[in-house]
Amino acid sequence: MERCPWCGTDPLYTAYHDTEWGVPCHDERTLFEFLVLEGAQAGLSWITILRKRENYRRAFDNFDVSKIARYGEADLARLLGDTGIVRNRLKIAASIGNARATLELHENGGSLDQLLWQFVDGRPRINRWRTLAEVPALTSEAEALSKELKRCGFRFIGPTVIYAHMQATGMVNDHLVSCPRHAELGG
After folding, report:
1. In this structure, are residues 115 and 148 in contact, taking their beta carbons and an 8 Å threshold?
2. What is the mean pLDDT of the chain?
3. Which residues are known to be catalytic?
4. How many degrees, rounded to 5, is the angle at CA 169 between CA 167 and CA 170?
5. CA spacing 20 to 30 A to 147: which of 38, 101, 102, 174?
6. What is the DSSP letter of 121?
7. Please, which residues bridge with residue 42 across strands?
């Protein structure tokens, strides 16, 4: 059995595949981290974002939404000048706005975890893909979740970004059936 071919042989990428991608996650901070990273990745390769991940953690106060939600113009300028992250004004502003939207969820008695996982009835969807060509870029659940996130004030969370988030955080098991991780994660 071989791991999913999308991660190639880069040690950072294979470690991510082997230990993190597709593992069900219910931790608020990690779920928010992946929203930021998946949004930053739009139009770029995931390995580019993985290589910048520690820089993102540093620049965004380890993804503490209560801190990020208070960011102002000086913080936006600081982030736009940080060569360790993707310096895209729209993506950075969306990350700050998404922290505020997450905080609003918390203030209203909800959580990012509850909001996200309700779209898969609280448990991972186990897919049985045999080839990468079968794996969709988005699903109807991702489209519905994207629409709900937008309604809650989130941005830069289109259905393709959200489906990548669902894959990363284990809401769906999209490891190929030939990959050992598929069975390890309940496939």
Report:
1. yes
2. 97
3. 16, 38, 46
4. 65
5. 174
6. T
7. none
Each residue's pLDDT tens digit, 145-154: 999 999 999 9
pLDDT at 187: 77
Residue recorded with tokens 């779920």? 31
CATH superfamily of 5-184: Hypothetical protein; domain 2 (1.10.340.30)
Rounded to an integer, what distance in angstroms lies between the CA atom of residue 143 and that of residue 147?
A: 6
Query: Can you give the residue ranges of every domain in the chain?
Result: 5-184
Amino acid at 159: P
- Residue by residue, DSSP assigns 16-48 as HHHHTTT-----HHHHHHHHHHHHHHTTS-HHH
Strand partners of residue 125: 172
Token pair for residue 116?
Answer: 């996200």
Averaged pLDDT, 33-44? 95
What pLDDT digit, counting tens, does each position of 63-112 carry?
999 999 999 999 999 999 999 999 999 999 999 999 999 999 999 999 99
